[in-house]
Amino acid sequence: MAEQAPKPGDKQRYILGLILAVAALMPAVVWLALLAAERDRLGGGWGSPAEMAATLLVVLLVVALGVAAFKLSRVLEYIDPEQIDFPALSESFSDGGGRLAAYLERPPPRPFESACLAPIWNGLFPPAARVAIALLLPLMLIMLALLSYMVLSAAEADRIIDQGPVNTTLATVTSVEEKHDRNNGRYFETRYRFKAVAGTTDLHSMSFADHTELRPGDLAPVEYMARDPSLNRLVGMRTTPIDPNAILLPVGAITLVFLPSFGVYVWWRRRFARVLLTEGVLVDAAIESLRRGGRGAVFCKVEYRFRGLVERKRLAVPADPSLYATLHNRRQRHRTIKVLAHPERFGSVYLIEPILAAAR
Predict the structure, then answer these.
(1) What is the pTM for the complete model shown?
(2) Which residues cross the membrane (predicted)?
(3) Angle separating helix axes 259-279 and 114-124, nearest 10 degrees
(4) How do the pLDDT tens digits run along the chain, 360 residues long?
(5) Is 29 within the bounds of a domain?
């Protein structure tokens, strides 16, 4: 039985249903929680009319939420079985003037033309994504720099003690308390007192560690700056609740590993597009496998014949979710697609047909 096409306005109706279900679910859950708290306070059993009504309301709203989400997913995933031609792409993806089509008619290797690269590159790395990264990357670097500065400032006392010179004496532990940070990470706060100079008033301080075997009343070695005893810590502990390395190591990994890796990935994708443009050939390929991922991603493998050899490669698809329906129908009807392939390099080919379609 053929899947029924969604009616006009179905998408908006289901989205509105989701919003209303969520808006009603929140106060219903709060109402149920208040009733449960009241029952616990009074010591009664579950099953009062109000509590049963609240429970039934929450269940119905959850069911309505699930139904609306399912209906919306069917609308978003609906495939028109008659859609064989690729839909028109946005201007940044298309070859509206036919310049790319004329360029690809020349035999490879072709002289590089940046104007012809733009539609292919925009399909691999959309302008909107480039703008978002250009805006977010400086903000992320500033946040990482501020975070590093805050951590290093908090650990300044440890740095000074590490540089020395320090004196060492015994301190008396007055309390040991287990605490948790905002990420539910555990650490121990150990308070103690000691005399930096015999006959003087006790100095009271605290140190932090992820683990400790100390108990109140224990004696523990403390190291302090000779010129300023207020800068001190128990040996093996630190002066701040959070271990600076727990923050600085991820920050360093992001700065020194993730960002350069992302830069290499972008460079490789652009090189892929440029080499295909100047050295690639247009071939007809059959779709072997097709899968739709999240956020409009399409995962596809194709097979084509070139110079008597059969090649099987991944298909790089322009970043437009509307292309999936045509790919699905072409595969169902065993119809080929036009791809741009390199005869000897890369494990992927590029779906060029929807880009060239605008020139026809």
Answers:
(1) 0.64
(2) 14-37, 52-70, 131-152, 247-268
(3) 130
(4) 445 656 767 778 888 888 888 888 888 888 888 887 777 666 666 667 888 888 899 899 999 888 888 887 776 666 677 788 887 776 667 766 788 889 999 999 999 998 899 889 988 888 888 888 988 888 888 888 888 888 888 788 889 999 889 999 999 999 999 988 766 778 899 999 999 887 678 999 999 998 999 999 999 999 999 889 999 999 999 998 877 877 778 888 888 888 899 999 999 999 999 999 999 999 999 999 998 876 667 899 999 998 888 999 999 988 777 788 889 999 999 999 999 999 788 889 999 998 887 655
(5) yes
Pairing of strands 348-351, 309-316: parallel
Residue 325 lies in a domain: yes
Q: Is residue 70 part of a domain?
A: yes
- The domain tally of the chain equals 3
CATH number at residue 181: 2.40.50
What is the residue range of 31's domain? 10-77
Contacts of 172 (CB under 8 A, 6+ apart): 192, 193, 194, 217, 218, 219
Is residue 256 in a domain? no
